[in-house]
Amino acid sequence: YALGGLRVRNRQPYGLELALAASVLLAGSSFPRALKTMKPLPIGLSVVAGFGLYRFGMLWRGAQV
User: Fold this and answer.
1) What is the rounded distance in angstroms from the CA atom of residue 54 to the CA atom of residue 35?
2) Reported pTM
3) What is the CA 30 to chain-centroid distance, rounded?
4) Distance separating alpha carbons of residues 51 and 4, to the nearest angstrom
5) pLDDT in tens, 6-45
């Protein structure tokens, strides 16, 4: 997230794609674990991943249109 965010802020190439990929990877690992264990840490990571997917996905979608 940090590298993607810095690249987005500095308007460097592939910032949005990098942040979106980080969100996808985090979501892919944390959503199943949160559903299985119902522990606070995986649930919190899932919330962060969901926010990242929404935020960077909407930015990427707007940049592609």
Assistant:
1) 20
2) 0.80
3) 11
4) 15
5) 998 898 899 889 999 999 999 999 999 999 999 999 999 9
